[in-house]
Amino acid sequence: MRLATVGKGGSGKTTIAGTLTRILAEGGNKVLAIDGDPNPNLALTLGIDRDSANNIKAVPPSLMTLKKDAEGNVMKLPDGTSQLQMTMSPDELIKGFAAKAPSDIQLMMIGAPPDGSAGSGCMCASHRAVRGMITEMTNYGSHTVTDMEAGLEHLKRGTVRNVDMMLIVAEPYYRSLEAASRVWSLVGELEVPLVYVVANKVRNDADRQAIDEYCEKHGMPILGYVPSEDKFVEAERRAMSPFDFAPDCPGTKAIREMAGKISKMKIPAMA
Ligand SMILES: Nc1ncnc2c1ncn2[C@@H]1O[C@H](COP(=O)(O)OP(=O)(O)OP(=O)(O)O)[C@@H](O)[C@H]1O
Ligand SMILES: [Mg+2]
User: Fold this and answer.
1) pTM of the model
2) Which residues line ligand 1 (CB under 6 A)?
């Protein structure tokens, strides 16, 4: 299954993506984690130590090039977007750029801009590279989990169109839910087969009810509810992975429950 976490800034995308990756890798499954955020921080959440995390090389977007036909014209997909090709095989990419995380997890950072400073220059190449890479790396292992940057830009550009499941991480307050429903509308245009809301930082029944009501009104299915978890906050303070710091806390258990549901799901064919 190719998964991606999307949603409003700070909603918990990286926490959910990293913890889900660790759980999906249990039992020896090979999982590829992709950090698609120009300001990457999935490494720590996966359990890679601080020094190693700071030394991971981002995959240069220049490794993805536009695919051209014999006449030199850029080839297009049926939806009008440009076709891409990788200049390295998936194995070479993993060897050259992936960082080893605990279990059989490899992490690749492919959202960072070429010069390593977020916000500089045009991000088109990075978005294109992330999109191409996710497509090309599909056959790696049992799952790929991509952690996307906040906001709608990458959805408008179709960066994560080639995934099987999109998890929209939302917090139980109005602006976060509004952001989730905008994501929901955009994802509809990308024809992602499985799209769910993950309700995160749920403090009580009132929070849960607010999310339930909003999602029902907008026709958005909910995959699971992750409680507001002090252990996650503490893990963050210690620059540790929530999974290693508190493998049995209610927050981790809730993500484990979602992983169980995901593992049983079949990908419906798109029309
Ligand atoms: N269930 C939770 N309970 C309490 N705190 C949480 C929970 N999930 C995430 N957090 C905390 O919320 C903050 C933001 O989480 P995270 O970095 O995962 O969000 P994000 O959506 O990836 O953010 P960004 O948009 O900046 O990439 C972190 O301090 C994290 O520890
Ligand atoms: Mg994040």
Assistant:
1) 0.91
2) 9-15, 37, 150, 200-201, 226, 228-229, 232-233, 236, 251
